[in-house]
């Protein structure tokens, strides 16, 4: 006997023989020749397969992926020779580490008995190697040993290293075959009927459909009730038809490019069609049954060709669903995100990594996302070796300890298996999981592309290669699982049903049957007229809310300065004077909460506020605990009804998340605040492709509010401008068309509702806390939803004149006419020298100039005007709402000052800010009021510049002084 053999090993071997677990004492004697060194080498070899087996897995259906041989998977690397292959080795229980060690180093209490078939503790090395290669180097490559949690690793290993080979029953195989047949024949049917149409088909990864359906079925069995899907364009039509169950007739009809309706009827929201979008960008929702008999709600979000932009939008929608359904365990609502291989590693890094990073943050987690990468092995025309620096496109996910399952798209059963495993992982651990579905792209980037230009060898192989359905049919015939006649019967059935649907599409009348989901019942489309509602509240409620949100627990120790802030806020309520910006916002939030609405605010440093003005979350200076006054507005307030959360340092990802949150339910004020306005450029795709045009393209409303701190304070080019001009340029309003407004009905509604409803979004630059309060409340107090882009102030947060009396927040105005009930947001604020605030104030013929402006520059203009004593010579009008443009109120002001010339003043350079937006609109107002129309509206501001602002303090001060002086100089 080898002196290195522990006595307990020999004892265990003979004990196994006595129990009948091995065939003879000779076997036990043979086991005794297994040294500790051999046991360790065997264990290290097994561990090498667990860690690196995926590098030798058969993942490429085309067989073109030439990988270097992994020496650690060769038994010779561990000192085993050919003669050892038929030696039997003991496979008992080894305890090689501590349970708390990271998985990569933890060898643990490892029992190979479950791994090997038949429960035998003794196997030949040849059998061990065959089972390892079959498990880790077959059609699935498992990556999970990077996860620093032994329980998670062991959970996966128990499902990967099964005692018996996992086989599907004949019924299950028939189901996989049926789903794969629908998937493949849908693509081939479209290819035959619409030969010249782009559809970004799924050919080469058709197995995605049975995989997704298996994933959804397994999720439903484990408690999932709703699934939100975000995906790029490739395969979308197939997913719509075969996963979402969008009627085939409708799919075929859309290939004709017909408009949803011929006429627009103002009283029928189903007739609003917007601009529309290409068919492979559209979404839908559907309730469908699952194999277990449960019903599950599926939502596929519409999204543009910015491939990964929809990711966090889907996550935000899921998070909102979890809030409204009280899904605190995050079991019932699940997101599935589909990705392209190039996008996941390339374009997607900007959003994929951010989505992964957000996945476990307290106010952004959705309980795990299932990521499905449709890996074509080429991004448009770029080979992987030129598009990423890592072996796999999914390697970024390992940074967040996500398990990754690589799978050959030609193996339908392997794909089904990993999809079911992914659903189980998500429901068990509530963290992300990635499936890398490795296939190919049969027709190039789109169906009219010529891929041989750039990938000749790949496409030669593709032409010779059978599709996934043919591969699976051949496999079933070889196995004898399903007879040929039954396979042909499935194909004939699918072909007939598609043909019938194609014929039915000729008579199909396109309609818009899913304008908005049930939560949105009663909300109006842009083709309907909604009345303007009041946003003031009773004074008693204002005071009640004001006291509630300034009350701190007796045992709480706030910071000394913050205690003074809250004391000052309480005094504002008591005195009814001097409401500042932070308190005005808090009153808006508090009153909306008191009315039963949900309020959510997120962004970088929003709890305190970048400029230390909000202090929504207070920190106890002794214990470190926190207190959020707005969570205690009234007794019995729902947990998380008010949510405020500092976000990760992301604009792109977080803004998308909040947009998704806002589209789920209209009864929520959802706000994203940028740290500085110019930081929004990091999220430009969300603004361009979703917020500004989502309603027109996809008929989906959102009341999302975006706060962009903006204003020239000498802080340099990176902290001055929120790039107002970009947002104004995207406004879809005709600058030369006056809206129809009945001034006599202004206070009971008029037609201003239709003006704002027909505009794609609102651009606002408020100058008073009361107006800020009303514009926030206005978001929820109307029968439609529109995005609000607000250029929030910095300087005005503490400006001594930027204060409002409490009466301006109430139901009754404090202006000259007390009969005007129901204070609303003021789109234009009249010149302060006029005390008459009625609709038709008297004319002021003695004024020589009207200075129109927007934002905090007003206070500097007003201060200099007072210093010069020009209150009776120059009128300063604040345009608080830049879009849609307040034509009616601007014309009213022009009529009031019939002899005054018009000038626009702004802090921004001429090529930025609002000047180029307001100029044609001011000219149209001049024309409508019978004024002489200037060729160019007079301008006072910075000259055209490449940079948004100077970085020199002295230069800034001089520029500011010059533009103020020029605006007030009536001789200019």
From TrEMBL:
Gene Ontology MF term list: metal ion binding; oxoglutarate dehydrogenase (succinyl-transferring) activity; thiamine pyrophosphate binding
GO cellular component: mitochondrion; oxoglutarate dehydrogenase complex
GO terms for biological process, alphabetical: tricarboxylic acid cycle
Subcellular location: Mitochondrion
Cofactor: thiamine diphosphate; Mg(2+)
Pfam families: E1_dh, OxoGdeHyase_C, Transket_pyr
Record's catalysed reaction(s): N(6)-[(R)-lipoyl]-L-lysyl-[protein] + 2-oxoglutarate + H(+) = N(6)-[(R)-S(8)-succinyldihydrolipoyl]-L-lysyl-[protein] + CO2
Family annotation (InterPro entries): 2oxoglutarate_DH_E1, DH_E1, KGD_C_sf, ODO-1/KGD_C, THDP-binding, Transketolase-like_Pyr-bd
Chief subcellular location: mitochondrion
EC numbers, comma separated: 1.2.4.2
Family: Belongs to the alpha-ketoglutarate dehydrogenase family.
Physiological role: The 2-oxoglutarate dehydrogenase complex catalyzes the overall conversion of 2-oxoglutarate to succinyl-CoA and CO(2). It contains multiple copies of three enzymatic components: 2-oxoglutarate dehydrogenase (E1), dihydrolipoamide succinyltransferase (E2) and lipoamide dehydrogenase (E3).
The protein, known as: 2-oxoglutarate dehydrogenase, mitochondrial
Organism in which the protein naturally occurs: Chlorella sorokiniana
């Amino acid at each position: 006997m080898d002196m290195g053999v522990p006595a307990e090993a020999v004892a265990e071997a003979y004990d196994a023989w006595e129990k009948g677990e091995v065939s003879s004492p000779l076997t036990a004697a043979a086991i005794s020749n297994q040294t500790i060194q051999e046991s360790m080498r065997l264990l290290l070899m097994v561990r090498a397969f667990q860690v690196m087996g995926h590098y030798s897995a058969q993942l490429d259906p085309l067989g073109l992926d030439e990988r270097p041989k992994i020496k650690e998977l060769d038994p010779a690397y561990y000192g085993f020779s050919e003669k050892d292959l038929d030696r039997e080795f003991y496979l008992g229980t080894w305890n090689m580490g501590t349970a708390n060690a990271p998985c990569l180093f933890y060898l643990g209490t490892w029992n190979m008995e479950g791994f090997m078939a038949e429960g035998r503790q003794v196997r030949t090395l040849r059998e061990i190697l065959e089972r390892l290669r079959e498990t880790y180097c077959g059609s699935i490559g498992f990556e999970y040993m990077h996860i620093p949690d032994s329980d998670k690793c062991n959970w996966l290993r128990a499902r990967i290293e099964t005692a018996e080979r996992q086989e599907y029953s004949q019924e299950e195989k028939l189901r996989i075959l049926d789903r794969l047949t629908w998937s493949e024949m849908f693509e081939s049917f479209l290819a035959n009927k619409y030969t010249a149409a782009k559809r970004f088909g799924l050919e080469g990864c058709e197995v995605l459909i049975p995989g997704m359906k298996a994933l959804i079925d397994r999720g439903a069995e484990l408690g999932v009730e709703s699934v939100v899907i975000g995906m790029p364009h490739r395969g979308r039509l197939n997913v719509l038809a075969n996963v979402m169950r969008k009627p085939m007739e409708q799919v075929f009809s859309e290939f004709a490019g017909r408009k949803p309706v011929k006429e627009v009827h103002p009283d029928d929201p189903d007739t609003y069609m917007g601009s529309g979008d290409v068919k492979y960008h559209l979404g839908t929702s559907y309730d469908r049954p699952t194999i277990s008999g449960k019903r599950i709600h599926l939502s596929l979000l519409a999204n543009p060709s910015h491939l990964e932009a929809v990711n966090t939008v889907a996550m935000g929608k899921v998070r909102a669903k979890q809030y409204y359904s009280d899904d605190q365990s995050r079991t019932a609502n699940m997101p599935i995100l589909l990705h392209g291989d190039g996008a996941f590693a390339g374009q997607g890094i900007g959003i994929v990594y951010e989505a992964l990073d957000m996945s476990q943050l307290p106010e952004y987690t959705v309980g795990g996302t299932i990521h499905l990468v449709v890996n074509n092995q080429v991004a448009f025309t770029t080979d992987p070796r030129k598009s990423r620096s890592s072996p796999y496109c999914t390697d970024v996910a390992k940074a967040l300890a996500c398990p990754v399952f690589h799978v050959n798209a030609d193996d339908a059963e392997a794909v089904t298996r990993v999809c079911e495993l992914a659903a189980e992982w998500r429901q068990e651990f509530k963290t992300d999981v990635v499936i890398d579905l490795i296939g190919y792209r049969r027709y190039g980037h789109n169906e009219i592309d010529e891929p041989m230009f750039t990938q000749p060898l790949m496409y030669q192989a593709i032409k010779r290669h059978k599709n996934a359905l043919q591969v699976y049919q051949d496999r079933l015939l070889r196995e004898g699982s399903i007879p040929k006649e039954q396979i042909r019967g499935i194909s004939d059935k699918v072909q007939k049903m598609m043909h019938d649907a194609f014929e039915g599409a000729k008579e199909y009348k396109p309609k818009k049957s899913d304008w908005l989901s049930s939560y949105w019942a009663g909300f109006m489309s842009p083709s309907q007229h909604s009345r303007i509602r009041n946003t003031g509240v009773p004074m008693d409620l204002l005071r009640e809310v004001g006291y509630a949100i300034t009350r701190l627990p007796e045992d709480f120790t706030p910071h000394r300065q913050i205690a003074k802030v809250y004391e000052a806020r309480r005094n504002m309520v008591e005195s009814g004077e001097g409401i500042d910006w932070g308190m005005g916002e808090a009153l808006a939030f508090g009153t909306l909460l008191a009315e039963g609405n949900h309020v959510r605010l997120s962004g970088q440093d929003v709890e305190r506020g970048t400029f230390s003005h909000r202090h929504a979350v207070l920190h106890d200076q002794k214990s470190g605990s926190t207190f959020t006054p707005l969570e205690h507005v009234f007794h019995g307030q729902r947990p998380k009804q008010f949510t405020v959360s500092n976000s990760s340092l992301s604009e792109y990802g977080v803004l998308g998340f909040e947009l998704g949150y806002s589209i789920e339910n209209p009864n929520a004020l959802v706000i994203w605040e940028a740290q500085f306005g110019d930081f929004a450029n990091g999220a430009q795709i969300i603004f361009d492709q979703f917020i500004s045009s989502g309603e027109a393209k996809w008929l989906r409303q959102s009341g999302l509010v975006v706060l962009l701190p903006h204003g020239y304070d000498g802080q340099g080019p990176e902290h001055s401008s929120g790039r107002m001009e970009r947002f104004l340029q995207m406004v879809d309003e005709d600058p030369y068309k006056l809206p129809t407004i009945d001034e006599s009905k202004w206070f009971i509604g008029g037609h201003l509702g239709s003006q704002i409803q027909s505009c794609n979004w609102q651009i606002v630059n408020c100058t008073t806390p009361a107006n800020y309060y009303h514009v926030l409340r206005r978001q929820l107090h109307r029968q439609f939803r529109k995005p609000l882009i607000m250029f929030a102030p910095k300087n005005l947060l503490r400006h001594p004149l930027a204060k409002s009396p409490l009466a301006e927040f109430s139901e009754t105005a404090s202006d000259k006419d007390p009969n005007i009930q129901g204070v609303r947001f003021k789109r234009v604020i009249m010149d302060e020298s006029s005390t008459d605030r009625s609709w038709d104030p008297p004319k002021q013929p003695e004024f020589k100039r009207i200075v129109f402006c927007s934002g905090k520059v007003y206070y500097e203009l007003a201060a200099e005007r007072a210093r010069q004593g020009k209150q009776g010579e120059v009128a300063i009008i604040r345009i608080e709402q830049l879009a849609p443009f307040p034509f009616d109120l601007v014309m009213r002001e022009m009529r009031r000052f019939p002899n005054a010339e018009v000038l626009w003043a702004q802090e921004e350079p001429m090529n930025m800010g609002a000047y180029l937006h307001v100029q044609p609109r001011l000219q149209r107002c001049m024309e409508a009021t019978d004024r002489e129309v200037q060729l160019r509206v007079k301008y006072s501001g910075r000259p055209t510049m490449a940079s948004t602002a100077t970085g020199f303090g002295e230069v800034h001060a001089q520029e500011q002084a010059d533009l103020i002086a020029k605006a007030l100089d009536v001789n200019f």
